[in-house]
Amino acid sequence: MQLPNPLKTPSLLQKLQWITDPVSYMENAAQQYPDIFTGRIIAFGDTVVFVNHPQGIQEILTNDRKKFVAAGELNKITEPWLGKNSVLILDGSRHKQQRQLIMPSFHGERMQSYGQQIRNITENAFSQLLLNQPFLARNITQEISLQVMLQIVLGLYGGERFQKLKHSLPLLLNLSHSPITSSFFLLPFLQQDLGAWSPWGKFLRDRETTDQLFYAEIAERRQQPNSECVDILSLLILAQDETGQFMTDHELRDQLMTLIIGAYETTASVIASGLYWIHQKPLVREKLLQEVDTLGDSPDPMSIYRLPYLTAVCNEILRVSPVLPFCFPRVVQEPVKLLGHSLEPGTVLLPSIYLTHQREDLYPQPKEFRPERFLERQFSPYEFLPFGGGVRRCIGEALGLFQMKLVLATILSRYQLAVVNQQPERPQRRGFTLASASGVKMVITGRRREAQEPLVNKLIGI
């Protein structure tokens, strides 16, 4: 069977580039074949058809229960992190059941209760920084994101278990920090436990430490269930399916790990990229500040969330710097035609978020950061899809977008920042996501409002 527009680069070279520089791999391929092409990569069964045209993506996502099925088994490479019960890996009725148990935790009223926590966490994290001393934006946004996960997802605010998880969770993610170390997840033959000092051996031991902490917290909560708590773990422990069954400990662990690892990495990356873009565009920053300032010194979190220009800015950040390079893979179920190409059952399709967001016909001058795009027209969910789409759309979208808006608004309203390195930011592989290669080096040049007392104390030596 002739697959659509196969790339002529030797298979091994394609695989190496996919591991080391997936952005260049996709961009070079799209220059030859802007709408659809076939690549040989390390993931999803070796041969994959990338789809970059909105019409093709719409066809896939609106028929993903019949013609094109999202097969969880294709995400097996995430199992070492997430566990076999993760919603990313499950299929069929079990996927639907677990997703239905999780989704109520992200309803609107839940988000509202998390708002002030997110703002407090952000203010506290920035209060530890000194004026005129460079810092990596991604480090501080990771700290904020980790605190959000510990408090909002796990309901932990202090104590020994809080401190241990604060230490162990980042260690668990160290193996995904660069394109080279990420290859341990992409190449199963590297997954050899050669002792505590070997990369995979250290990962397994860090995972065991984190799992023990999770199971201890789950056991303690089960003994003392509290229907008044609004953290996600408490809600999941009390959640029941249509038959009255609760989640098992293993299911709870795997869904918690899915939420935490997914949201921790992606949200931290996109907020750091947002700080870069906003401070590279003074007019955008000034317009955004004017809008945020209309809410006063102590704005309601939901009022921040609804700000139209802030929404446009966040959408443009997600467009130009998407952390998810592609949607959940789909498998062709019956002979079909897609964008004029015949596809046979078993063909793996990968709707490309990154390439769709870079299409010149949708987004003129796509490398240019211009939030006004999202005020001038409305894009369909097949033209703008930072959280994927269909039945496998990112389950943590609501919390991620809510956190993104509140963190950026809180930082901008309190601090004057500048980017230290003016070189263009370029995304690179970070595990299964994309993130800024440099981490975005910034500096606090001043304060806009009287708020951060700890910062003043640090500066005068108290």
Q: If helices are DSSP runs of H or I spanning 4 or more residues, what is the number of helices?
A: 19
Number of domains: 1
CATH homologous superfamily assignment: Cytochrome P450
For the record, what CATH class applies?
Answer: Mainly Alpha
Largest sheet: 5 strands, mixed
- CATH architectural grouping: Orthogonal Bundle
Cα(first) to Cα(last) distance is 73 Å
CA-based shape: globular
- The helix fraction, in percent, is 40-55%
Secondary-structure-based class equals: alpha+beta
Contiguous low-pLDDT stretches (5 residues minimum) are: 451-462
Total E-strand runs: 12
Alpha carbon gyration radius: 22 Å
Within the CATH hierarchy, at the fold level, what is the topology?
Cytochrome p450
**Fraction of residues in β-strands:** 5-15%
Explain what this protein looks like in three dimensions.
The chain has 19 helices and twelve strands. Helix 10 crosses helix 12 (249-280). The protein has a single domain (11-460), classed as Cytochrome P450 (Cytochrome p450), CATH 1.10.630. It is α+β, with helices and mostly antiparallel strands and 462 residues long. Strands 1-2-8-5-3 form a five-stranded mixed beta sheet. A three-stranded antiparallel beta sheet has the order 4-12-9. Helices cover 50% and strands 10% of the residues.
